[in-house]
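Re: nicotinamide-adenine-dinucleotide structure - here you go.
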Amino acid sequence: MSQLPGIVVTGASGRMGQMLVNTILESDRVKLVGAIERTGHAWIGKDLGIAMGGAEIGITVDDDPLDSFARAQAVVDFTSPEATIEFAGLAAQARAVHVIGTTGFTEDQLARLEPASRHATIIRAGNMSLGVNLLVQLTQKVAAALDEDFDIEVVEAHHRHKVDAPSGTALMLGQAAADGRGVNLPDVTESGRDGITGARGKGAIGFSAIRGGDIVGEHDVIFAGEGERVILRHVATDRRIFARGALKAAIWGQGKNPGLYSMLDVLGL
Ligand code: NAD
């Protein structure tokens, strides 16, 4: 058992954090060696199992990432962009694989992850599920096959607590559509339509977001032509798919050369 890769979960009290902890505790391929929360969080200093409302598991929730990362082979991180940038430097120092599920990075923030990826193995994906990563490939293929007479719209729906839009997954799908068409996504993005917006631009890739209730994550890529539509859809009904994907990435990353990888690398797609 002691040879299993040790995992630290950051943002351990979050929706994804708790899902990751439960998935690791059920797994015989990885073991939990640490749990990090932000300074001042009510769970700091408490046993993680008890904080989650169950039995004691012998892992104390901590706000000192470097100390925990030094004991780990991988850090699995679904927090916020600023926190993730800090964790990237610390995970590189600790020589731990950094699996990043956090979304909502600006271009500037993404550039700040690059120094760490020269020294550490980083796997970042806006969506860790097998189904969405397959959908990314399909989107690229369909976008390459259909010309600009087909308008591309990415529509996503998430729970009411989500703080960023479009979702990381919607952006991955938009990027795949742009790659398929051979265009630069920022040049063709249309989002946040409201009021008298004028007609849709030819060749634009549109984004819209629905927020409500407990929706785990739904994505449609619509190719709307004259007289017909092709719709590619993924519906997530359980966050466990993201946790399983993240742990698969943590195992895959062991012994890999430093660099920035995606779930497409992990899944061999
Ligand atoms: P959440 O708000 O429930 O959890 C985030 C947690 O991070 C919170 O517990 C918060 O206290 C903690 N945190 C924030 N700053 C921290 C810091 N400096 N140090 C330690 N902990 C810190 O959110 P969530 O729904 O779990 O989502 C988290 C992120 O993961 C979001 O960006 C979301 O979009 C993304 N997400 C990605 C995927 C994927 O497959 N890539 C799937 C689901 C969610």
